[in-house]
Amino acid sequence: MSAPAHPDSTDLDRLHSAVKREKADLPPESQPAPLWAVFLLMLVAIIAGGQLGPMAGGWSFDVSNPFSVVSSGGGDPRPGAGDAGAALDPFALAMKKGASGYAVCGGCHQGNGGGIPGQFPPLAGSEWVNGGTERLVRVVQHGLVGAITVKGQGYNTPGGMQAFGAAMSSQDLANVLTYIRNNWGNEGTMVTKEMVQKIRDEEKRATQWTEAELKPFADKNVPGEITAGPGATAAAAPAK
Amino acid sequence: MQTTPASSDTELQADNLRRAAIDKSVKGPVLFLFTNGAFWLMLSTILGVLAAIKLVEPEFLGNAPFISYGRLQPAHINALVYGWGVQAALGVMLWIMARRSGQELKHGKSLLITAGVFWNITITVGILAILMGKSTSIEWLEMPKFVWPVLLACFLCYAWPIARMFGRAFRPEGFMVSTWYILGACFWFPWIFITANVALHCLPGLGALGAGIDAWYIHGVILLFFVPVGIGAAYYFIPKITGQPIASAQLASAGFWTLAILGGWTGMQKYMGGPLPAWMTAVGAATGVLLLIPVGLVGLNHHLTTLGKHSAVASSPTLRFIFFGALFYPVSGFVLALNSAFWTGSALQFTQSWYSFQVVSVYGFFSMCVFGAIYYIVPRLSGCEWLSVRLIRNHFWFSVYGIGTIVVMSLVAGWQQGADLNNPEHWDQNFMNHVVNSRAYVVSRAVAWALISFSNLMFLLHLLLMVAGLGRRSSAPTLLHREHDEHALPAHA
Question: How near does any CA of chain A get to the CA of B399, in Å?
């Protein structure tokens, strides 16, 4: 078929060729849907419904944060959500970071700080934790071995507690100590990075402490500015 | 070549003439919409490149406020949505509905053209106003207040004849499969558009709820306008070209009604944890995940239909665009579910991944389907065949690579931004660090929009040549797997 010279040609065969080569509109069939697809879609519905319940906040017009009404959950469980503004306060920041750092300690001392009777001493309500910061920093920095007494109970774990100082920065160590001193009902002054650094500079021992060796430090606090939190001595400076 | 084996030659001839007459009756308005839409698409993609460059290099092209990021980005999205998206959708809707219903467009052709002209003038004024700094700052509704009644009236000028054609149609079994979506889009867009504009422009003192309504509007336009038009086109053209009937009428019905029921409930999860009543964001989030159901039903139906027929994708330009567009539908549903779900949404909230959803649904899914439809419709209206296989191929591949890059990069960027912001270790960091960290992704976005601009330049030129009647004079379709072969199988295209 030769091409006509003019676009307004009346070569109907060619002009209608696109229409002529079309296939007819076909009615749809009724093939069955595979069963796995049905289950997959049910799974979607379950996931969607599962998140609807906890997030709806009781279907009230007055609730915009559904997690504030769940008192036991301790606020918004999403990673990093919640009172992010508090991060500017050094004490709150140390508590947040300390909470994640505590994962290392929780293996023995347990998530509730209660320890395991006869094996690992508790941190909650412990005079070692709530007492002088000087002894507490030294225990974690260099480790502790031998028989000790905590809250009237005797403990003598083989190998004792290892030294964590070498593996952690002084800031991380300070965060964890602040956290355990202000959790599970404990309340104490915060331990700062400078305090930990001071102990590190003063004491270079390579062996673990014993209870008797630590006796002199039992009620001593490491000197230094307490930047925020309970017993703060200085105005809160922005966290580093 | 043959329609039904039973029909005689005369009947076949009559049927061909009838379809040719229908095509001729909608030719003017449809080609007008496609051509103007293609111009807006060209502009929108260029603005997209500039906006992305401005985000990385604010000094680029000088400091004039006229071309600052804050004005370029809304201009880019508004040109994409109203300039290209709605216009091209109306063209496809009008043609498919005319064909499906077997009705010629009898009256009001001049009214349609007039409405089209007004639509384009209004958008031009609106986008210029954005660039002059008169934006309303409401996402996707940045054009000044006065444009929306005009746009609504123009839209209704098109929706009315489409709905009338449906009303007059003889409806054989299976008639609804693609028609549902086209008819739904006619009614849903005015509903969403009126609700959002009245609420945001006429009701005083909305406060934070206004932001929620705006997010609902964006998702409504995508899920109840762009998505139905895209699926309607896919449901019409896939059986038309492969010659394979849609696999399951039941799945098609379920897919439509679940979308119709769920589509209007989502959007507000954008402000999860924000100052909106929690149940509003919770419902939006749950619906965002539930929308995987209509997405899955349609995807499954297309999969069952095209199983073993994928070879036609290599040759037919229409099927290739529609097929890849239909692949992007599950992708867009998945991105929406990621943005909405509680576990991932907390990291993706307010990040680039929301841009990823807008782009994948408006460009990756909707526009690819509409390109496919245009490659099918235009030869029937202009009376000549597409000129160049190479132009079509380049249009396809540059679009696919560009859109893939934007979607993947925006998702990864969103995840990184969100995870960094939520990480307690970063809470005392300067926010600027996060902005600097996302630079590389924005550079890739600029490159991707540049690829897409290039592909659209070819599309625009090709379309203009076709509309001018300068296409190939041949009775054989332009197929992709051989160049200008006069003996090509007439089965496809």
Answer: 26
Say if residue A146 is in the same domain as residue A206: yes
CB contact under 8 A, A45 and B293: yes
To the nearest whole angstrom, how far is the Cα of A123 from the nearest Cα of chain B?
24
- Number of domains, chain B: 1
The tens-digit pLDDT sequence of chain A (240 residues) is 444 445 555 666 777 778 888 888 888 888 888 899 989 999 999 999 988 988 888 888 888 877 764 443 445 544 444 444 444 577 888 888 888 888 888 888 888 888 888 888 888 888 888 888 888 888 888 888 888 888 888 888 888 888 888 778 888 888 888 888 888 888 888 888 888 888 888 888 888 888 888 878 877 788 877 777 777 775 544 444
Tell me, yes or no, if A28 comes closer than 8 A to chain B by beta carbon: yes
Tell me if chain A has a CB within 8 Å of the CB of B169. Answer: no
d(CA A138, CA B59): 55
C-alpha separations of B244 from A156, B102, B180, B479 in Å: 79, 21, 20, 19
Q: Which residues of A touch B476 (CB under 8 A)?
A: 17
Q: Is residue A7 part of a domain?
A: no
Residue B477 φ then ψ, to 5°: -70, 160
- d(CA A117, CA B168) in angstroms, rounded, equals 84
Residues of B in Cβ contact (< 8 Å) with A97: 424-425
Q: Are A170 and A95 part of one and the same domain?
A: yes
How far is it, in rounded angstroms, from Cα A190 to Cα A230? 7
- Work out the number of other CB atoms within 10 angstroms of the CB of residue B334: 15
Q: For testing the chain B interface, which of A2, A11, A23 should be mutated: the one with the most B CBs within 10 Å?
A: A23
Angstroms from A210 CA to nearest CA on chain B: 35
What's the structural domain count of chain A? 2
For residue B316, give its domain range.
309-480
B149, part of any domain: no
Q: Are B427 and A87 an interchain contact pair (Cβ–Cβ within 8 Å)?
A: yes
In this complex, the residue of A41, A81, A97 whose CB is nearest that of residue B273 is A81
Residue at B298 is within a domain:
no
The per-residue pLDDT for range B307-317, each reduced to its tens digit, is 877 778 888 99
B-chain residues near A41 (CB < 8 A): 292-293, 296-297
Nearest to B103, CA basis, from B155, B160, B170: B170
pLDDT in tens, A150-179: 888 888 888 888 888 877 888 888 888 888
Same domain (yes/no): A64, A151: no
Whether residues A51 and B240 touch (CB distance < 8 A) is answered with no
Please tell me whether residues A117 and A53 are part of one structural domain.
no
Write the DSSP assignment of B386-400 as a string of letters: -S-HHHHHHHHHHHH
Q: Does any domain span residue A184?
A: yes
Question: Which chain B positions have a beta carbon within 8 Å of A96's beta carbon?
Answer: 424, 427
If asked whether residues A108 and A192 sit together in one domain, one would say yes
Considering only the beta carbons, identify the residue of B278, B293, B472 that sits closest to A44. B293
ipTM at complex level: 0.82
Q: What angle do CA A99, A66, A88 make, to 5 degrees?
A: 40
End-to-end Cα spacing for chain A = 82
The reply to whether B170 touches chain A by the CB within 8 Å rule is: no
Domain that holds residue A96: 86-217
SS3 of residue B325 by DSSP: helix
Alpha carbons B159 and B94: distance in angstroms, whole number: 8
